[in-house]
Amino acid sequence: MAEKKVVIVGGGVAGAILAKNIQNQANVTLIDPKEYFEIPWASLRGLVEPSFAERIVINHREYFKKGDLVVSTAVNITETEVFTADGQQIAYDYLVIATGHIEPIPKTRSERLDQYKEENAKIKSASSVLIVGGGPTGVELAAEIAVDFPDKKVTIVHKGTRLLEYIGQKASSKTLKWLTSKKVDVKLEQSVDLTSSTEDHRTYETSNGETIEADAHFLCIGKPLGSAWLRETLLKDDLDVVGRIKVDENLRVKGRSNIFAIGDITDVQEIKQGAYASGHAQLVAKNLRLLIEGGGKERKLGTYKAQPPISIVSLGRKQAVAQFPFMTVLGRFPGMIKSGDLFVGKTRKDLGLEPHVKKS
């Protein structure tokens, strides 16, 4: 009997972990526009310490050794095939969409590592840094710079009424107090015109008319969902108003028996973060095995329950702010959980790799 064909579109956290876990049970094809997987929540450490990026940028072929890797983007799907931008038509028995968010990053690992080095040089040469956006990315980047380069002037401009709006007020307040103690200037309820600066005159103007002097800036705002390509496909009616894919309790696209969606692209009502995307991947790996081993018959498929709003935001190398269901805490305790290694060793182990890697 021929192996079932599983096509995974997207090589982020969810897609990579699924590909690793299902590659020996089916004929798997992973479609991704880049040749590597990157541990996204650790990328900001890579900006202040480029050697750290060596561990977080992992060629797909390091963990995904058995199936087919297609370095391209998916542009259309039918009931039986996925079409890619480079002209391939890839047949599937089961399809998993894991396209998360769109981020314009290089195709190869070496290009990505070079990019980290360039961004690090930009930070090192700057005496002042402007960060636009006060979500988890902006906060973590500000903290990384403030801890590693305490002499640099760091400013965050955020259009919201508080930092870290995706979690509770207490976490926001504790984080603001911590950043202020590190001399980070936080400007809330403002936006900034990034075009107001020139090469010779690095002054930025905010919507309140304030001016900010900065030698370098980083844009840390939300990335667009990776679902635009689905709007002209057979799944066009399976997207919610913001573009997330509507899934059932088994993480299948609602009303479809052989198409799944996992990770940030789904409409599961929970904080969108890597740990939960990994949970999606592990559940769908189990469900695919059940379907494949059962000859396609419905067996007792695993169900997914939305996870509580738990989040840990690193504040440099030793501290963090953590929101748990019944407690919000800032300091070394949550820092011990996440900030030292940022779960990089664990993630590498989950992919069957050594937790550490020799510098290239």
UniProtKB/TrEMBL annotation:
GO MF assignments: electron-transferring-flavoprotein dehydrogenase activity; flavin adenine dinucleotide binding
One Pfam family this sequence matches: Pyr_redox_2
Residue intervals of the FAD/NAD(P)-binding domain: 4-276
Gene3D superfamilies associated with the record: 3.50.50.100
Gene Ontology, cellular component aspect: cytoplasm
InterPro entries the UniProt entry points to: FAD/NAD-bd_sf (IPR036188), FAD/NAD-binding_dom (IPR023753)
Function, in words: Putative FAD-dependent oxidoreductase.
PANTHER family: APOPTOSIS-INDUCING FACTOR 1, NADH:UBIQUINONE REDUCTASE (NON-ELECTROGENIC)-RELATED
Name this polypeptide is given: FAD/NAD(P)-binding domain-containing protein
Organism, as annotated: Sphenostylis stenocarpa
